[in-house]
Amino acid sequence: MGQVCLEREEEAACVIMCASVKYNIRGPALIPRMKSKHRIYYITLFSIVLLGLIATGMFQFWPHSIESSSDWSVEKRSVRDVPVVRLPADSPIPERGDLSCRMHTCFDVYRCGFNPKNKIKVYIYSLKKYVDDFGVPVSNTISREYNELLTAISDSDYYTDDISRACLFVPSIDVLNQNTLRIKETAQALAQLSRWDRGTNHLLFNMLPGGPPDYNTALDVPRDRALLAGGGFSTWTYRQGYDVSIPVYSPLSAEVDLPEKGPGPRRYFLLSSQMAVHPEYREDLEALQARHGEAVLVLDKCTNLSEGVLSVRRRCHKHQVFDYPQVLQEATFCVVLRGARLGQAVLSDVLRAGCVPVVIADSYVLPFSEVLDWKRASVVVPEEKMSEVYSILQSVPQRQIEEMQRQARWFWEAYFQSIKAIALATLQIINDRIYPYAALSYEEWNDPPTVKRGSVSNPLFLPLIPPQSQGFTAIVLTYDRVESLFRVITEVSKVPSLSKLLVVWNNQNKNPPEDSLWPKIRVPLKVVRTAENKLSNRFFPYDEIETEAVLAIDDDIIMLTSDELQFGYEVWREFPDRLVGYPGRLHLWDHEMNKWKYESEWTNEVSMVLTGAAFYHKYFNYLYTYKMPGDIKNWVDAHMNCEDIAMNFLVANVTGKAVIKVTPRKKFKCPECTAIDGLSLDQTHMVERSECINKFASVFGTMPLKVVEHRADPVLYKDDFPEKLKSFPNIGSL
Amino acid sequence: MQSWRGKSLWLALSASWLLVLLRVFPLLRLAVPARPWASAPQGWPHWLDTELLPSFSQPGELPEDAPQPPQAPRGGGCDWGACFDASKCRTGGLKVFVHPVAGPISAAHRKILASIESSRYHTASPEEACLLLFLSLEVPAGECSPVPQQWNGGRNHLVLDLHPAPCPQTFQLGRAMVAKASPTADTFRPGFDVALPLLPEAHPLRGGAPGQLRQHSPHPGVPLLALAEERGRWRTAGTDPSACPWDGRCEQDRGPEQTHPGGTLPNATFCLIPSHRPDALHFLQALQAGCIPVLLSPRWELPFSEVIDWTKAAIVADERLPFQVLAALQEMPLTRVLALRQQTQFLWDAYFSSVEKVMHTTLEIIQDRIFGASAHASLLWNSPPGALLALPTFSTSPSDFPFYHLQRGSRPVGRFSALIWVGAPGQPPLKLIQAVAGSQNCAQVSDRFFPHRAISTDAILSLDGHSSVTTSEVDFAFLVWQSFPERMVGFLTWNHFWDEAQGGWGYTAERANEFSMVLTSAAFYHRYYHTLFTHSLPKALRTLADEAPTCVDILMNFLVAAVTKLPPIKVPYGKQHLEATPPLVPGGPEPQPTARDCINQMAAGFGYMPLVSSRLRLDPVLFKDPVSVLRKKYRSLEKP
């Protein structure tokens, strides 16, 4: 027995075993009497059984130690088994709700406090079943949609299971549909939540508010300060900047498979598909149909459907039967009319069909109107003007209609499609209010992905001509060519608008010359030593750069005249968001090789400028250093080449604009270079540069460079005019 | 026998153990309390019967509710649909009538009246008007302005309340809209009322001071924060977040700061503006200075919030989280700071810099509500040059306008229409037509002054009968125009200058190193400028232009420069002998003085001098380079 217990690994199993041994008191006496052969046999058998039991025990007790299956982390239980909470009849009821609530008055922002990720934390109360004194349930425990909604929140980044760290609380009491609940008791149930505190920071989701006969436009359950995400708000009940207006989810979204239909003209111009329209409105609609014939289709409930056919999926016009929601795809505009409630699920179906909703519901606050620009996807018509609907819609140009159809479909995909989409958009809106500096922009909310990908947003969009007095900072990247460097410094210092000269000393093995040896110039000269000999050091946004204009210049560019440089700066002032350089280069598509080719011949076109000497905005240094896509920066440093092409790509990609080549200059000829055999060097050089273009184009995923056929010259360049009267006479050499 | 018995005994024993254990384990498992496991977060449970849960609305119930009589559920308040009758505006367009003001009025009010009268929506007859404007005056305490005639319960009325009136509720507003400076957020009715900026008394009528921003990126030495204080003062604060800059909680540690005298503009990257309404005055100051306004829980509605996306130019933060806001400001990426700063300048210049702009914006917002679907898109309101200069009657699609191509990285497609202005009947300029029609980009040529509607292309080549251009000049100029569709691209130029001796603006047609105007006798520009010329310019300026032909050129250049804030573009032109002399007016040997008058009257009409000078000319890439002429695309440009 002792041996067996020594082998034990699992305490509980052992205890049980010992207990049973004790019970069968004769057991131990048997063992010594057995033959050793049998004993081994039994012991083996016994251990196998024991091991099996241990394994089973471990499996049952420590499910969480098994990492592979996430199913184990959440219990599988039935909704019917949730704990029951009895609400005494006299338990407190929250206040009715404060219409003057705003984020800064009713919301406790301290709970959301310090948060490096700028994300609110949302806690979900566990599910309970509430019954009154007589054991009668207060409401359906939970609906399928509300369960989906809570699951979506729970699976999102917002979720926390730590109630003390939460900033927003979501009760598990389902108030999506007011008709399915008892108002007073539900309010009591809310009030007894552990962190209720007058409803502060509590978020309720409701899609069908009000009830007969007057149908309030907001949930009637008293909820004190709780935020309400409601479908069907009117401007009278909606607390701007506090509540969130959400769509009424259409269950057809999940049930029906409706392939996308592109924008364009459709069979019917205007369609009304709602079934229970008030007779007065139906009259108006039918009058429209009578007036405009085929173009308008007004559908109604089907009266003569055979049993078993889902009536929600059929609509009729006279004796013609249409499939719903498929019929919506046949119309350009679809009426979304107010019923007893302002919020209608048909809006979701209409958007999905890419039909432009014509919202006829006075004072209705459209879903997510805080962030979505409904003007781009819908037409709102006052109820009074219903008879004029047709002519109002006729005035919308075809191009705008197509844009609206596309936008409608995108709204559905992004914000209406599923309960999850609705829940996450709601939380994002609240998150944007709490962390406004990290909020999504108008474009992020409203632009369809195709537009987002296709357009640029120029970071320097303001038409601003910087004052000439600011001047520019020249940055000279140098390694050890001190003599040539000094000549460059002397030359550049003659340019009137130079305000500072920065030498980037890229040689770690050698110290820069002593102060006394540097040329004496009229502007401040700073030397920056770098930690590593990298090409990208030339494009680093040094703090020493105080001007917006930067002139990047190599330490061997001595041929540029003062006039050329000054004129270059003047041109940059007129185009501060572009690269302004001297020799221009071109990229070409090589049809034989099926790739890009670098071209430095005498061409009529330009798409790049060399940065051996080029003016550009300091901001592009920041972009080059911190925002260069992919591995381009490292690639350039490793190959010690193409940093200028990379800069051309970067600027063109972010601004969508072409470079400006100034003056006729074609080459940076340096006296030292003439000795080298130009031709073979040129060949390998061209191949390498072409490689760069192909590499960068693949990293950017597109070819951002723009080709132009113009260059900038002084106004009177080569004009028949006295040279001495020209502002920049010393321009024109190649 | 014994062993057999032992065996069977053991077997039975093991089996019974097995059974016992199998029974006991589940029980034991239940006995263990369901504790939350610290390691894995316990999310919302996956219910076994998810599929069986009922839907929140039964299919029969959801799409339809019980039909109800059509009644607007409202609480006695007003909104656009309920209280404004737009039908009158839809037929005749927005027409605004201002109720005559009885008694003496202040200078500020006079400016308002003048600016409304200069609007293209103004009408002198109340019958014609679909919007009636009532100016709420500052009256002695206790007294209230009387209700005007034709009040009609306030229907289609806009009560203008630019300066906070001491009389709290002048009279029963009824169904009138209220345009109020910085209204409190509680009483503001979104979509119905209009929030105006709180303007200083001395705000200029038109023109207005330009934005103070001189460079895109913040200067490295500029302090991070400026804090608005009483009486229009600003206090700059260091970047150290530990010295909390508001609430007066850190009075003892004032740090590196100085107090500016009242009225000066803050020089900082961010401007903190406290929540109370008087501080709204600071808001405009910060905007003009290009200092990004950081509004701490404002209790007032931001101006024109209905159309302006303030998240692009300001930050609305919670005053209860000072440290977090400060940290966020410090860590804000440079790209965002740049964008915010530029947007402040654009908004200031487009909507706030003068009383006229503020009032015209107010009317434009109401016009947009009437237009409904064909109103300005958000892009038009929120990107340069702004909605006042992008007329929705021209198009609702941004790509039809000249301004948005470059911003979005696109270029206008298509060809151009040549528009040849022939003054007197006579020999048609055949040679010119031939040259222009020779261009493959030319879509249509007409030698008649024809209606704008007939122009089908975005680009217009404007010529007069005396101009002489070559096909290759036209081709190149058109190509350049496609790269700069918002500017005028021309061959002949003038320059303006400030004439000290005369104390006014002068201009010169002589060849110079600079230019600021191109002549429309040979220039490319966007079709949209015709519409803008006809519909947005004040009537007085247009009559001036009609009277003197030289003024047309100047006015067109003023207009385009005011819109783009950029100089026009000059392209090379071979016929230098036909210099840019102004066309001779028959019977008058003195065109010069008229033109000079013109430029000064225009500058007065605009309120400032919009023209910008340029020192460059765009030439073909190989222009006059010493290479084989065969390589060059625009050879004939170089012929002497």
From TrEMBL, chain A:
The chain crosses the membrane at residues 40-62. Residues 472-717 form the Glycosyl transferase domain. SUPFAM superfamilies: Nucleotide-diphospho-sugar transferases. It is found in: Endoplasmic reticulum membrane. Its main location: endoplasmic reticulum. It is a single-pass type II membrane protein. Pfam families: Exostosin_GT47, Glyco_transf_64. Residues 117-396 form the Exostosin GT47 domain. It comes from the Eukaryota. Keywords: Disulfide bond, Endoplasmic reticulum, Membrane, Transferase, Transmembrane, Transmembrane helix. Belongs to the glycosyltransferase 47 family. This is Exostosin glycosyltransferase 2.
UniProtKB/TrEMBL annotation, chain B:
It holds the Pfam family Glyco_transf_64. Residues 103-331 form the Exostosin GT47 domain. Residues 440-623 form the Glycosyl transferase domain. Pathway: Protein modification; protein glycosylation. SUPFAM superfamilies: Nucleotide-diphospho-sugar transferases (SSF53448). It is found in: Endoplasmic reticulum membrane. The keyword Transmembrane applies. Keywords: Disulfide bond, Endoplasmic reticulum, Glycoprotein, Glycosyltransferase, Membrane, Signal-anchor, Transferase, Transmembrane, Transmembrane helix. Its main location: endoplasmic reticulum. It comes from the Eukaryota. InterPro entries: Exostosin (IPR004263), Exostosin_GT47 (IPR040911), GT64_dom (IPR015338), Nucleotide-diphossugar_trans (IPR029044). It is a single-pass type II membrane protein. Belongs to the glycosyltransferase 47 family. This is Exostosin like glycosyltransferase 1.
